[in-house]
Design a protein that fits this description.
Elements: H1 2-11, H2 15-18, H3 32-41, E1 45-50, H4 55-62, H5 68-77, E2 79-84, H6 89-103, E3 110-114, E4 120-124, H7 138-151, H8 153-171, H9 182-193, H10 210-223, H11 226-241, E5 255-256, E6 264-265, E7 268-269, H12 270-287, H13 290-307, E8 317-318, E9 321-322, E10 325-326, E11 332-333, H14 334-341, H15 345-352, E12 363-364, H16 375-389, E13 396-397, E14 400-401, H17 402-419, H18 424-437, E15 445-449, E16 452-456, H19 459-476, H20 479-496, E17 497-498, E18 501-502, H21 527-542, H22 545-565, H23 570-580, E19 585-589, H24 593-601, E20 608-612, H25 622-627, E21 634-639, E22 642-643, H26 650-659
Parallel strand pairs: 1-2, 19-20
Antiparallel strand pairs: 1-3, 3-4, 5-6, 7-8, 8-13, 9-10, 11-12, 14-15, 15-16, 17-18, 19-21, 21-22
Helix pairs in contact: 5-7, 10-11, 10-12, 10-23, 12-13, 12-17, 17-18, 17-19, 18-19, 19-20, 19-21, 20-21, 21-22, 21-23, 22-23, 24-26
Length: about 675
């Protein structure tokens, strides 16, 4: 059995899971054999779900699971399994959902106890080795679970059936007729929860509200409501100036622990920064604020230094910890800052507001309290960057996840054309890399690690890669990207569309087999929202109306849930609007580089650039075929089921992209 356990543990090659090789706990990976061993030995299962970037996951490994008494008890009475939430989002989602129902807790590390058949007995997040005050420790939990498993199995079975029924009800279809007015309901809810003092919505902790910001920017563009602008700008400003953004080397941390965006948890995830890059580029295109351009450039600078894989692809994440200290790479004792700043210390105190806050453990996280420009400010930043680079940086998970890398490629392509910030060539190389190494012609892989594809794609992997393919096509005019997008779309619809929307995976894991239709933002776009958006945009470009209809089936199945949960599914509301209103697109026919560049650089929400340099259009869209019979070169702006007359002047084209049938998109 030991050989089987080690084989299972090593099969994923996940850096988080492989940490189990050095633990006194005899970990398994997530595999069928682990549950078979639990049945054979008649033991309950302990599942530890975490990630390599997660600070408290490391703490739990270093304290709880390294405690000799805890490890001995687990090894004697349980089958322990480690799961990487980045590598197995399908398993993580199901266990997080059940944990929330069982204990009202979710997050990472996630601690779940199950039967050998996968029925949840109890769940929690971080557990110290022993009781702390009124909070139970791991030893207490282990003994209670073991007692329940041995003496109250009928109660566990009854509870498991109730839990299954509740999960099934949550994921059953909630049909409704999609309508655009749902956006007004979400906007009203956002206004009521808006933090006018510090930006964002609600209280601590605060995650960057990615989909809500996208909704606010879209609606402000079309409707011009000042409140939408105030909510968007206040939030974008607060995040970009706060400690949740790395002011020295760029990129956003996962979230802020406080209401003020001041003290983050210090992990950086590719997917968060990919989506925020697109958001800040769009905000710069609308508002023209230098802060937003600097922030977009900071994200791409972080990509440059830490996240780009040579030849295409982006690494997955950067850890929060260095040598066991959370944020040790980013935080500063005041005497360290004073030494690094030298004679510019008074400027540092004023600019970063160093004496305004009682810093945790006496270590400051840099934020912009008061603006500073000019040579002295530049020199201050140069000195601090130099000091930072002398420190050991947090490790990077070099795994390439198809969806996250495609989201980053899309973000860079969008940012490059709207804000001049982004390496669009690396983005196109990424699309080529994913297409060549993670797509077998029928199915997409979820990840790439150690020279091989790993895992099956989840629904958002397909959606992000379709969006990246459309952006790569808009930049290059190469039809291979449209063809790949169509191949992805066909696989997405055939493998993932079900009665309740798009399922996260084609075939659910046999242990946690309940169908899952992700529609809540996390705060990233949900699987259903990104899938529906990508299909609607691809349908608009190619004329494949069946793809739009597939998106409509998913949105109709989920619309009742959207109405119930409101801003928590803002991404789905954006998808509904794109489905009901034909997405704007600009078709450039003939060899017209200036017109093509104008089509790329003009901003309109979800606008597609469709360059057609050849004499034929191999897809069903009839309007493009008609354009090819007209004057060339020329550009046509299409919006709201109508297209403009042919345009030949780049500046006039830009104006038309922004204004043509704009009123049709107002609420």
């Amino acid at each position: 059995m030991e050989e089987t356990r080690l084989s299972c543990l090593k099969a994923t090659k996940s850096p988080f899971v492989l940490e189990g090789l050095h633990s006194p706990v005899k970990w398994w990976g997530w595999c069928r054999e682990a549950f078979e061993a639990a049945r054979a030995l008649d033991r309950p299962v302990l599942v530890d779900v975490g990630a390599v970037w997660c600070h408290w996951c490391h703490v739990m490994d270093e304290t709880t699971y390294s405690d000799p008494e805890v490890a001995s008890f687990i090894n004697e009475h349980f089958i322990p399994i480690k799961v990487d939430r980045d590598e197995r989002p399908d398993v993580d989602r199901r266990l997080q959902e059940m944990a929330q129902l069982v204990s009202g807790q979710s997050g990472w590390p996630l601690t779940v106890f199950t039967t050998p058949g996968g029925e949840v007995i109890w769940a929690a997040t971080y557990l110290p080795p022993r009781d702390m005050g009124r909070a139970p420790g791991m030893l207490t939990a282990l003994k209670a679970v073991l007692e329940a498993y041995r003496e109250r199995r009928s109660d566990i079975a009854k509870f498991a059936e109730e839990l299954r029924s509740e999960v099934a009800a949550w994921h059953s279809p909630a049909p409704g007729e999609p309508e655009r007015g749902i956006q007004l309901e979400l906007l009203a809810a956002l206004a009521s929860g808006f933090d006018a003092e510090y930006g964002g919505f609600g209280g601590a902790p605060k995650f960057p509200p990615i989909t809500q910001l996208e909704l606010l920017l879209t609606r402000y563009f079309y409707d011009g409501v000042g409140l939408y602008r105030r909510m968007a700008e206040a939030t974008l400003d607060a995040m970009a100036l706060g400690g949740v953004y790395d002011h020295l080397l760029g990129g956003f941390f996962r979230y802020s622990t406080d209401r003020m965006w001041l003290i983050p948890h210090y992990e950086k995830l590719l997917i968060d920064n990919a989506e925020l890059l697109a958001i800040y580029a769009e905000a710069y295109a609308i508002f023209g604020k230098p802060l937003y351009l600097r922030t977009a450039r900071g994200i791409t600078a972080w990509f440059d230094e830490f996240m780009r894989r040579p030849g295409g692809g982006y690494h997955a994440s950067q850890d929060a910890d260095v040598e066991g200290e959370e944020g040790g790479y980013y935080r500063w004792a005041l005497d360290e800052l004073k030494e690094a700043a030298g004679d510019l210390w008074p400027l540092a105190v004023e600019h970063f507001g160093l004496l305004d806050v009682e810093w945790p453990e006496g270590k400051a996280t840099l934020r912009v309290a008061r603006p500073a420009e000019g040579p002295e400010a530049e020199e201050l930043y140069r000195r601090l960057v130099e000091a930072r680079r002398r420190r050991r940086p947090p490790r990077v998970d070099a795994t390439v996840y198809s969806g996250w890398s495609c989201a980053a490629a899309r973000g860079e392509l969008l940012s490059a054309r709207l804000a001049g910030a982004g390496n669009w060539r690396h983005a196109v190389d990424t699309v080529d890399f994913v297409m060549a190494h993670m797509w077998d012609g029928a199915r997409l892989a979820h990840g790439w690690r150690d020279g091989a594809a790993v895992g099956k794609a989840v629904v958002e992997d397909y959606g992000y890669c379709i969006l990246a393919a459309l952006e790569a096509y808009g930049r290059t005019g190469a039809l291979k990207y449209v063809d790949w997008g169509l191949g992805l779309a066909d696989a997405l619809v055939a493998g993932h569309l079900g009665d309740g929307g798009f399922k996260d995976v084609e075939e659910a894991d046999p242990v946690v087999a309940a169908p899952h239709y992700p529609f809540l933002d996390t705060p990233n776009f949900s699987g259903n929202s990104v899938a529906a958006i990508s299909l609607v945009l691809l349908s608009s470009a190619t004329g494949r109306r069946d793809l739009r209809e597939a998106a409509g089936r998913a949105l109709s199945a989920l619309f009742g849930k959207l109405r119930r949960v409101g801003p928590s599914a803002a991404g789905l509301a954006l998808a509904v609007d794109l489905y009901l209103m034909e997405p704007p697109r600009t078709v450039v026919v003939g060899d017209a580089p200036e017109l093509a560049e104008a089509a790329l650089s003009a901003y309109r929400p979800w606008h597609l650039a469709v360059p057609v340099s050849g004499g034929e259009w191999p897809y069903p869209e009839q309007s493009i075929k008609a354009m090819l019979r007209g004057p060339r070169p020329a550009a046509y702006v299409c919006a709201g089921l109508a297209c403009s007359m042919p345009l030949t002047e780049p500046e006039r084209l830009k104006k038309n992209i922004q204004e043509f049938r704009r009123e049709a998109y107002r609420l």
